[in-house]
Amino acid sequence: MCEVQDNGSTVLTGNMDFEVYTYEYVTQRLYRSSTNRSELHLICKYNYPGNEVKFSWRWKSVHSQYPETQIASGRKGQSININRTHFGERLKPATTLFNGKDFTMHIVPVMFEDAGTYTCFVGTILYVTVELITVKVTVDTGTGGASTNLTCSVSEVTETVRLVWMGNDNKTFITEKTLKAEIQEEKSLSLSVQGADGGTWTCVLFHQNSPRVVIPYYLEPSGECFWRGKCSM
């Protein structure tokens, strides 16, 4: 029953059917390593009526002051348009032809510069927000191979985390650093390895004592570095 009132008096009544839909807004914070096999799945699945509108994914880089950029868009029954300015061929839709429901995107591999905020819009409705934080390891080999400096860096600190360098046994914490969002400081942790100390050194990012990112790095005793055949990531 629908009733219309004017100054407290009923002026019109009628029987009408109403459908009420509750939209569940999704927000996530994800950590990914900047490595050759790291993957990011931007999931945006919409199972409500009204899916004839335009869907879009937007990205705001944490490394840039520029406004957010639309990186993908599409309408039901049409091919999905991809903006490859930053991601190139690394950004791919789950399906080429959009079915009006699954607007999921994949980024493979993830790079350190991909950090930022990703948002999925259904028309003008903000439906999904993904905050991506990336971690990388870089290497600096000293002259003559006497020592090698390994640096583990995080793109952004939005909650308290720990960076830890672990030794060959994957048990010993060699050095660690706690990073807090409210404290402005260098968002990295370095480890100096002598040329004779070869083996695998592992950078781990912990949040609430749970490892979120693990990056192993192999060094030859000579100081020559290997990570999937490369000396940098």
Automatic annotation (TrEMBL):
Family matches, as Gene3D superfamilies: Immunoglobulins
Origin superkingdom: Eukaryota
SMART domains: IG
Coiled coil: none
Domain Ig-like: start-end pairs: 145-214
SUPFAM superfamilies for this protein: Immunoglobulin
Name of this protein: Uncharacterized LOC103184170
Species assigned in the record: Callorhinchus milii (Ghost shark)
Lineage, opening ranks: Eukaryota, Metazoa, Chordata, Craniata, Vertebrata
